[in-house]
Amino acid sequence: MNDQQQDKPNVVLEQKKAADKAFTLPLRILRWLLPGDRIRTFVYLNLLAKPRKFLHRALNGFYRFDQVYEVLKGFRREFRGPFSILEFGTAQGYAFAKILYATRYLKMEDDVVVHGFDSFEGMSITDDEADQGLFSNDWIEGSYAASYDTLRDYCEKKKYRNYRIHKGFFEDSMTPELIEQLQEEQPILVWIDCDYYTSSVTVFERLLPILPTGCAVYFDDLEFNFGSRFTGEARLVHEVNSGKSAMTWN
Ligand SMILES: C[S@@+](CC[C@H](N)C(=O)[O-])C[C@H]1O[C@@H](n2cnc3c(N)ncnc32)[C@H](O)[C@@H]1O
User: Fold this and answer.
1) 95 Cα nearest atom in ligand 1
2) Residues with Cβ within 6 A of ligand 1?
3) How far does the centroid of ligand 1 lie from the alpha carbon of residue 49, in Å?
4) 87, 182, 233, 241: which could join 191 in a potential S-S bond, CB 3.0 to 4.6 Å?
């Protein structure tokens, strides 16, 4: 190593120190202006750290409906329909309405049918270990119970034509006829919000063989039990990705 190479890290370090110094100059002036550690700390935490944290979250935050628009625009650019978007676990229709609206906003109502699936009975009780919360059972029987008629009336009132609501348990509503129809009306986005591993498995067993390449799958509850691969939707993802399940991707 020659002298020049040896000097290099020190030069970089000095440059960094100078940049840091310039960056913290306003802070040092503020520190000098404010009397006492208590006031300085208060001002730092509330007037600097808090807005900085907020800005950081605002810029890097994740808004789940962003991807609905991204997927729709991406497919519109590259392919021609008919397409479908499937939501498993529709409940009162919060996400369903947002997804439907996205098709309207992007003028894709004639190209994309949005399907919602739910028993409308809310969460059921399951003994399956893969559905149990680590510390408590997160889901109470009947939570998220909703009205099929209310959701249908909402869609009618908004004059949507491109929706289907499938009332019933997934094992009953995902009929062979529907699976066949989805091969014509290819799914471009599958929205999994049914919380349980057991429910998601039912969906994937029927759907995975026909999902086209490029179809996006969104899992709403991946963080259940800190994202453990032994429970919840994360378990299903792990099984599919590692080839541990009998399900196959086409
Ligand atoms: C968290 S909620 C869905 C919330 C909804 N996506 C929203 O945006 O408001 C979960 C729903 O999944 C439904 N669900 C869970 N397992 C099911 C199954 N095997 N068949 C039908 N519905 C199921 C429940 O009825 C419940 O309404």
Assistant:
1) 8
2) 89-92, 94-95, 118-119, 121-123, 144, 169-170, 193-196, 199, 202
3) 39
4) 87
Domain spans, the chain: 10-61, 79-241
> Which residue's CA is the nearest one to ligand 1's atom 13?
89
Cα separation, 82 vs 183, in Å, equals 10
Model confidence over 69-86: pLDDT tens digits? 999 999 999 998 899 999
Determine which residue's CA is closest to atom 15 belonging to ligand 1. Answer: 194
- Which CATH number describes the domain made up of 79-241? 3.40.50.150
129-168 per-residue burial string, b: 16 or more CB within 10 A, e: under 16? ebbbeeeeebbeeeebebebeebeebbeeeebebbebbbe
Instruction: Quote the tokens at residue 224.
Output: 């259940």
C-alpha to C-alpha distance for 79 and 215, rounded to whole angstroms: 12
Positions in the chain whose pLDDT score sits under 70: 1-9, 137-138, 245-250
Closest CA to 99 of 67, 145, 62, 146: 67
Query: What pLDDT is recorded for position 111?
Result: 96
- What is the model's pTM? 0.81
Q: pLDDT, tens digit, for every residue of 89-106?
A: 999 999 999 999 999 999
